[in-house]
Write a structure and sequence with these properties.
homotetramer, 355 residues, alpha/beta, Rossmann fold, Dihydrodipicolinate Reductase, domain 2, 2 domains, six-stranded parallel β-sheet
Chain lengths: 355, 355, 355, 355
């Protein structure tokens, strides 16, 4: 008898949705992509060509898709605004859920997803923080676990996109939740991974500029921002997010402990080639995050399938997804108000006046 | 109707055979692994666990396997000594063939495979030089095609394995064809790719030592060897092969042209992590060639499937496989005799006395 | 007739004072070290051996030294607390002055030195920000001037020392002015150089921890601190200073503009050697700032001598030395109070309540 | 009383001669440049401006210069053809000698210099192999001495100059001794240092092309050449020399032992800057050997002065200078004849026929 495969459906076939669908279709041996949903005509047309011939049933109605006979899981790659609703509906249909980050830019909504998941502990519900599946970050985590750093104390992490002059990111800012929630949330998730899930912010500051996209002002957002989070227990994380890189994607992380340090991607590179010419020696850089993290996404699909089929633990807690957005929102608030935020050891806000 | 998939069988389930089988099973969307053959009990036991449950029929008889109904192709990963015979038999059954390198360590045998393939031009027959499918080497080829190097004139390339103290390579030397045929054949294939398939060797020298495996003397082989091939038309390739690396796999290539230079893998690395400690800054290195070239092998499976299904050209000529072994054999001869070999512009040997 | 040489005296023969003395003695062809002063017996003993035999007159009294016949300049490398007084006395004796940074940790005192220098425009008075003389930083400045970065917008810079478990830095913190004034002042000076001398801080935040030196608490100081300065006109600089590096000195800077980016020392290295071993590939790192900046100090001595002798401009303004300490003090205040500081476009403080 | 300084004269004020003169004048505290000789009017004019004002007596006659009262040493940077004669004359005047490499391109002449030096053991006579004074190569030597490599077995070393389209090197080839004697002699000297002075060549091969300077044919020379030397005792060194680099100077060395490996300058760089732009990340490369080795030459001057004044051993044997030229000449012969050369364990030639 053939081994059971995870019958999964893909919701949303935008840029990342297409990738998830293809990864489950082609690069996840223990999964079988059986359905896909998109409300968008162009995406549907793409799906008819790239998914339907391979046995994937297509839907323009999410609810119908998740009612498909035999379906076991759904991967959600739609717009952020519907992530939570779709995730909850899927759970109600007894489906495992892999949801693109963030669950929501609204913390209360995030919490509703987590609450629903708690009710159904037999379901695997994961928010896709892709760096958790990247071999380099996993090596960092292992080195920390092995004690090579002593006590991790300082984390520097940046998410920096290649400059896109098309204006896309201005429109996107209308609903992205702001740069810290949209971009730095990955760096914050790394912080929870490397410093510990239970760390509590103590103080938060942030500063931002609009260097190349002045129109972001209408959304109170920025194209370059720096934020600092000090945690109770003597740890600091500081973040830089930018959409202005000239050369490509540059997502770099350093963790400094009392006895050692690690860095990830301090020398970004497209491949292993150097080109030597009269101007010097040049290497190329990935143009976007998928150029950097493609294999992490493939790993994510495979580990999700395994966890669902074998009922083994997922490598990250769903509740972290709330905590990462919470910290991102604190940074965003500090950025917009120009005030340092303080919190006590239980995570409650302390008024400036009381300091 | 579901799109046609390439029904393929895997011959040989040793170290590399297993990988080919799994790559066609799991990572080649347009292929379907339907059969596998091994004469080895331990390998058969592995196959019962990892292949059979997924619909792969197992055989301990190669001839029976290639007679399976509906089979379209075979990937050959058995011992080198049977590559040629199995490839020819497969062609006689009208099957496409992807054969691990080398076709044979005997040039006449290589030629018989090529001759058979010429008779059946509708079949895709490829010798698996994996570096042809590596994204970095492809970038080099593109840069050469784009003229960034001017006229490529000097090629340095090395295939260097991590030292294996188990003695495996001494036994292996009994039938490997010698280090230049076994290891440098990859570097020679790169030379044909970057200098042009039609280059003719003009002179050949080689030197070798036995630094860590003195027992190689019984097979007239070496654990470290350096060879130089000058080509007619003013080009030189020089090679280093070694099985003595302390740190891991280090396969490095440089191509120097009249106007530019490229290097591949000048800084070997396992991942994107650096570890900072009181002794300095350290990065790890892949332990073997699969750690360096895994994705190239996956790419190879996929491109082979596509070429077979769509009847599109393969990215490398089968005749190169002969030429690479021929040049490897010249180097091996120069190594063993201690004499420089000279050839005229048609590739015929010139006696030393006539110089 | 022999060309005129700058007759210079060295005040202070501690760690850096010794180096200045030897650089002027041996590595500054247009200068002649003619005198040295130290109140310390051990330093005097060193000077008798290393300076006196080469024609350097030794003093245990600063005032006497600066009265030496024919003296033209003094290099001040004494304790920070006497820098300003000694610099002013030297000017009163009509001597050129090269003073180690900072002029003082007290801004009013800094200003008194600058005021004195303004009265004597024929004198060259320089505060030794050594990075201004480093070839890599100069290359960055040239690339900015050449427009390769577009508009410089984000600067990240860190001054990170190897961990010294001796407790030296705890004692030192008693009078250092705090980490931002003592360490980050170099990074702030780079900011003035790369963003422009006339930039005005708009907002300032800082956070710090005591990860390895808890005793710093008595001096309200920290062993790791992160600070952010936003400037009017849409620029941000962020700084990290630490005395906890496991591997050695790591002073790294990045400048990101609207069209290009540069980094300095992203891969710290002691020399050009890599060591390959079973654990990977390792390179060593300089143990301290002099290992990184030795040649910058030599360049500084030489350019100071040239400016004095030829009456040519110094490469940095004395007033920058005040501004760098002012910004460092803002960071230190933000660090200690836990409040973000705001300033208007003239540089005046804005109260939080008014925001 | 002022400490004794080494009164030294500089012979030859060409490109490297000027640098030696200035290094002894300005950057060698224990030396005093007291005289300089050049037969060339333009060089004399330069000397009147840059040396004479600092107390250096100028000569257009070598013999007169070395007769100057009180002279203790001479640094010889004239044309190679007169190195030996001038060195011998200097020794006859009881002067220490630092002679630019090579002593001569004629081995018999080299031997005459060594013979003369043997007669006068109280004199320090050194042939300036500058890499012996480079901190990176010294680190390699120390790591070998410390046993980090096990038994050094393979050495790869290249001397590669930036392409100079002026034709200078064609003219230069008339008397350079050929590329292996002129360029690879440095790599051969490193081989003696790292493998041991007493190693005996066992077999030698070489190949060359004229890729950008076809006119070198008239001098039987090449612009790119690869040579291999196997030594008795199981060691191989292989060399690449080129005058065709597009990007700058690239002098790289690797030493591979049975237990470890080291590389020097595997990533050539002008300084610590990386420039990030839409085409990738670029670093610049030194344009010539002095950009790479300037500090080694300064170190050489200083150690030579110390050895002369304190009668301490020089860091390299004069006899190595012969051996390096001998091995270079073997490579050059192998290059020109197209024959592999064999030698017995005493270093005597074995005829091919006898193999």
């Amino acid at each position: 008898m053939a081994p059971l495969k995870l019958k999964i459906a893909a919701a949303g076939l935008g840029r990342m949705g297409k990738r998830h669908a293809l990864n489950f279709l082609n690069r996840t041996p223990r999964a079988e992509l059986v359905a896909a949903f998109t409300p968008d005509a162009a995406e549907m047309s793409w799906a008819k060509q790239h998914l339907e011939p391979y046995g994937v049933t297509l839907y323009d109605d999410y609810d119908k898709m998740i009612s498909q006979e035999g379906l076991m899981a759904v991967v959600i790659g739609t717009a952020t605004s519907v992530h939570a609703e779709e995730a909850i509906k899927a759970m109600e249909k007894n489906l495992h859920v892999l949801c693109e980050k963030p669950l929501s830019t609204d913390i209360a909504v995030c919490k509703s997803v987590v609450a629903e998941a708690k009710k159904r502990p037999h379901l695997k519900v994961m928010c896709g923080f892709s760096r958790r599946f990247d071999s380099s970050y996993r090596d960092v985590h292992k080195k920390i676990e092995d004690g090579l750093l002593g006590r991790p104390s300082i984390l520097r992490s940046q998410t920096c996109d290649k400059h896109d002059p098309s204006g896309f990111f201005v429109a996107y800012a209308a609903w992205s939740g702001g740069v810290f929630v949209d971009m730095s949330v990955h760096d914050i998730d790394l912080t929870l991974w490397f410093f510990g899930d239970d760390i509590i912010p103590k103080s938060v500051s942030a500063h931002g500029i609009r260097a190349v996209q002045p129109a972001l002002k209408q959304y109170n957002d920025y194209d370059n921002a720096v934020g600092v989070v000090e945690f109770h227990g003597g740890k600091i994380a500081y973040y830089y997010c930018s959409r202005m890189m000239p050369h490509g994607q540059e997502d770099t992380t350093e963790v400094i402990g009392t006895e050692g340090k690690v860095s990830v991607n301090i020398n970004p590179q497209q491949n292993l080639v150097n080109y030597y010419h009269p101007g010097g020696i040049t290497r190329e850089v990935p143009g976007d995050y998928y150029g950097r993290f493609e294999m992490a996404f493939v790993q994510e699909s495979n580990e999700f399938a395994t966890a669902c089929l074998d009922d083994t633990p997922l490598p990250l807690k769903l509740s972290n997804a709330i905590k990462a957005v919470e910290i991102g929102s604190l940074l965003q608030e500090a950025l917009v108000t120009g005030k340092q935020i303080h919190l006590d050891e239980t995570g409650r806000r302390i008024e400036q006046a009381r300091l």
